Structures are given as C-alpha cells and as structure tokens.
C-alpha cells in the first residue's frame, strides 16, 4: 500500500513539512529528510525549485532561487534521493511546477520517482482535466498519488470533482493567497474549514498556507486531518541552519 | 477546413490551454464563461466601438508607403497603429478589457508591463473609467523606462516594482498573477498580450482583431481586394501580430510573416527569437514555445526592444510556427535600428523599435513587384528616442 494512504489511516493529526530541495545548501536534502522523520513529522514535501513559482510568496521564491543558484536541478535531486529508502520510511511527496517535469519527460519522471520510492506528487499548475486525460494512467502505473488543491473560492461542484479524482488527500489552501502571505486564521477560515468538513469528502484534507506555529496548526487540524508548514520552516532554516531541525518541529506539537 | 483559431478549450493545435494553480481557477473560469457573451452584447459592442473611434482615434490609416515601396520594388502598406492614442496598438486591448472588467463588476485593475507601453495603456483606461489601477513592473525596467513610469503615475496608477527573479517582464507577470491569487474577487487582471491562460490569448486576439478587420476594408478601397499577398508583424508575446493576422488566419493565400527579435544574433546567447530557440513548455499558464534551460527553468531573453523580450510567445503564434502556416523571420538589433532610421528618412515616420523589426525584413526577404505587403506599424518611436540617440549617437 502507498505510504501516504497508510499514514492517513493512523489515528492522529498529520504534520507535513515542505522545504525547497537544495536550500540552504545544495547537499542538505537527505539530512533534512532524515531529521524531519526523526523529529516525528508524518509527511514530507520536497520542493523541486522553479525559476517562476507563481503561486508562491517571497519566502519560497527566495529559497527556490537560492536552490537554483546552488545548482539544484531535477536530475541532481533524483541522484541525491536514490538511496533515501535505505534510511527513511516516511511518506515523501515531490512538489513543484509542471514545466520542469514536462521537460524531464512525464513518463521518465514518474518512473524515477517509483524507483526512488516517492509516494506522490503535487503539481499545482497541472490542471485536473489535463491530468485525467493525459497523465493519470502514467501516475497510476508508477504508484504515484497526485494531490490536488482546493481554495475557499473553489465551488462545491468542483470540490466534488476533485475529491472524485483524488486518492490520498486533498490539499486545502487556507485562504486566497500565495504561500506565506497570511498569518493566523480568522472566522473566514474557520467557516471554510467547517464548510469543507460538512461535505463529507472521501479524501481527508490537509490544510496548507498560513500555518506557522502550534496555534495555527491546532486551528487548522480541528476539523482537517492535518496541516502543512512550508514558509515558516524555510525561515527557520534560513535563520538557524540545518543542525537543529528537531527544535522547530517540537514547537509545533 | 483546418482552423488556426483557438478551439473551445483555448487550444491552437497543441498549444494553449490553462495550466494554472487552483487558486486562479475561479478567476479564469469566471472570465472564460462570460467573455464571449459579454463581447456579443450590443451595449458592449457599441461602447467598445465608440471608444475606439472617439478616444483611440480609429480607424487608423492604411498608408501606402510610396518611397519605401520604390526602394524595395514591391507595394508596401503600413497599418498605422502608431497613431493610436497612447502611441501603440496596446490600447485596443485595454479598452476592451476595462469594459469587460466593468461588466464583470470588478473595481480594481492590475496589469504587468515590460517597457511600460501596456502599463500606460492600462493606466489610461483606468483613468478614463475612474477605476483603481496597480501596474507591476520589473525593478530593472522601472529604472530603464522612467518616462513611462512617470506617465503611469500622472494617470493615477500605482507602479509596484517586481523584485523577484530577473526583475523584468516575466517577473512583473508573475507578480501580477500573485496579486490576482491574493485578490480573487474584486480584481480583474488586464494581460497585455496574447499570452497567459485561456481565455486570455483568445480574448486579447479578438480585441486586437480590429486591426485586420480595418485592413480588409481599407485595402478593398485602395486595391480593390480585401486580401494582401502578405501581412507582416513583429512578435514578442504577439498581440499586434495576432490582431493583424486574425482575419487572415484561415485564408491560406494570404502569407503570414511573423518577425522576432534576434537580439545580438540567434546564436549569441542574447536573443529573443522564441520560435528558433524555444521548446514547448508552460509559461504563465499557457502551453507554448518558450526559452528555457534543459531542466525547464525559464531563461531571460534579450532584445534592444523592450517590447519583444518575452521568453515565450502566444500559443496562436506557436501554432502558426509549428504548423508552417506562418513564416518566421528573426531580425537583429542592428537590422531593426537601421530599418527604423530608414523609415524616418523615406516616409517621415519614427517607428517604435518593435515595429522596426517588421520593417527590417525587406532587406533580405524579396517580394514580387506587384505583391501587396501590409506591415503592421504597431507603435511610434517617441518612447525609444533615448535608444535611437544612444545607438546612432545623435
């Protein structure tokens, strides 16, 4: 069974952490993954850096640019990860924009992911209809779960269509924003979280965008299955380096 | 018959579509569901046409360039988009989109700009309608294009510097898209070219199609026929070209010539000739040809003309190239500057450097003496004066 699905069956709130591969240093990727697992994180999203990350706010833009300047690229990331399953069992998701995947070759990309032991992909600019028509069979063949996003503006009808096409979880964007743009949740968010919870979707939801500490983590996971922290973790790495990742995770839960 | 227009899903052949994150889906979907019916509304058409006539100054002349024609031994007509209010064809689209935004109930406008022409055209229509306007412009471009920054400010727009990435047009576009993600309800994004996710390329092409619509009737008057042998336009993102080609796309006997900026030469590493140097990929929500590394990172193009240095090209043009329907020619900085100066001397018209690229093809591309060749003179050269001064040491 896919490691993501297995993890989601556990009776606990999921803490997922995002970081940009190749940041702060080119070769930090494996250490960050290992330390996050040791610190009790449930799921990791490895960011594949892109020159034009249009859904991301300044923090992830900067880490992405720095990673590219450090020399990160798709082939190198796969090379760094080739033995990762010898040391960790945590579910791993690659998150990035569609163009680098397209240039690598979708079939080839998915095949490498399977060899390495990647469990899923999040490609925000790969649209639902294109995925279903052109790429779903390839993802399925290589055992990759594709994670879709929903936002407070997504219509109920479309949420249902996304739920139908998903297996694993739905990435619930907390507010109309780019990553790292907002801090804290207001009534607008809690209403939205409740609205989605009442829809009884077949897939659990994991909330992302705007989660930076234990307060926002607790708020987000009151009705959702889990929450994702990205920009706040990257800021932590920028300030503290990679030697004490456990301390960051401890302040979340 | 094969059509070179977009299909209902916004694809030109294999190019186009809407490769957007979910955060943008409701915005684009609202536009997609409404733009055609709004454009068909009599009240919309009436207001659009009235403004094009009284405010923009349309129809723009189709001018027979006698001395230029003599020099190159063919019949050259210039479509005088340089005479539009604000100095270029860009305003055709911004007039259309501001009316669209009003119909959609939006009260805030955002736009991206490279050299500032589209920014000025957007700020202009926002002033006209009394709507709040924010223009994103690369920090480097702000420094390079001070007069246009001042124009936008005089027109009441807020100019926000794009400080990410390469700090130029593509990054200004990213910032505008991010703004739209953060303001999904009240804001309309006026994209300045036939780029971006569906329905933008198709919608902008329709607003610009007034250019070829006028060429048809004007040519009928002057030559007794609607169809020239060739229609020529420069292509950055490709909006003036889309407008000039639009009504001829499915008329195979009309040759379509798209002129890209070769910069310092196609193989120099400093070029913006996307058809020659690009590969299929995704840029700003559209599947099209774009300049990128092997790894799929988007690269920074170069041209002396700020309006042509976009790393992608509209999906319509990618399809014209890939299908062979269009003839693609690239012109270097030097070729364009020389052709620009030549038009000044022969016809008394100072063209924008973008348009000079289209004029430069006559040096190498030969036409028959009785061929009718329409060149879209997309903009005037006022904004480029400093470039001309520096280049020719005037």
CATH third-tier fold name of chain A: TIM Barrel
Write down the domain tally of chain A.
1
The parts of chain A where pLDDT drops under 50 for at least 5 residues are none
Rg measurement of chain A, Å = 17 Å
Distance between the termini of chain A: 27 Å
Largest sheet of chain B: 6 strands, mixed
Helix tally of chain B equals 16
Can you list the strand order of the major beta sheet of chain A?
5-4-3-2-1-9-8-7-6
How is the quaternary structure best described? heterodimer
CATH class designation of chain A: Alpha Beta
Function (chain B): The beta subunit is responsible for the synthesis of L-tryptophan from indole and L-serine.
Cofactor (chain B): pyridoxal 5'-phosphate
Pfam family, one (chain B): PALP
Catalytic activity (chain B): (1S,2R)-1-C-(indol-3-yl)glycerol 3-phosphate + L-serine = D-glyceraldehyde 3-phosphate + L-tryptophan + H2O
Structural write-up:
The complex is a heterodimer of chains A (253) and B (394). Chain A has 253 residues and is α/β, with parallel strands linked by helices. Chain A has a single domain, classed as Aldolase class I (TIM Barrel, Alpha-Beta Barrel), CATH 3.20.20. Chain A has 12 helices and 9 strands. Chain A has helices at 3-9, 29-38, 58-70, 74-81, 98-104, 106-116, 128-141, 156-165, 187-198, 214-220, 231-240, 245-252, and strands spanning 14-20, 43-47, 92-95, 120-122, 145-146, 149-150, 170-173, 205-208, 226-229. Chain A has a 9-stranded parallel sheet with strand order 5-4-3-2-1-9-8-7-6. The two termini of chain A are 27 Å apart. In chain A, 53% of the residues are buried. Chain B has 394 residues and is of the alpha/beta class. Chain B has 2 domains: 11-51 and 90-204, Rossmann fold (3-Layer(aba) Sandwich); 57-88 and 209-392, Rossmann fold, CATH 3.40.50. Chain B contains 16 helices and 14 strands. Chain B has helices at 25-40, 42-56, 66-72, 90-103, 117-129, 139-144, 146-154, 169-182, 200-208, 210-223, 239-245, 274-277, 315-323, 333-347, 353-359, 385-392, and strands at residues 11-12, 15-16, 62-64, 75-80, 108-113, 132-138, 158-162, 187-190, 230-234, 255-263, 279-283, 286-290, 326-332, 372-377. In chain B, strands 3-4-14-9-10-13 form a 6-stranded mixed sheet, sandwiched between helices. Chain B has a 4-stranded parallel sheet with strand order 7-6-5-8, with helices on both faces. Chain B is globular. Chains A and B meet through helix 3, helix 5 and strand 6 of A and helix 8 and strand 11 of B. Chain A: The active site is at residues 45, 56. Chain A: Pfam families: Trp_syntA (PF00290). Chain A: Pathway: Amino-acid biosynthesis; L-tryptophan biosynthesis; L-tryptophan from chorismate: step 5/5. Chain A: Keywords: Amino-acid biosynthesis, Aromatic amino acid biosynthesis, Lyase, Tryptophan biosynthesis. Chain A: Tetramer of two alpha and two beta chains. Chain B: The modification N6-(pyridoxal phosphate)lysine is found at residue 90.
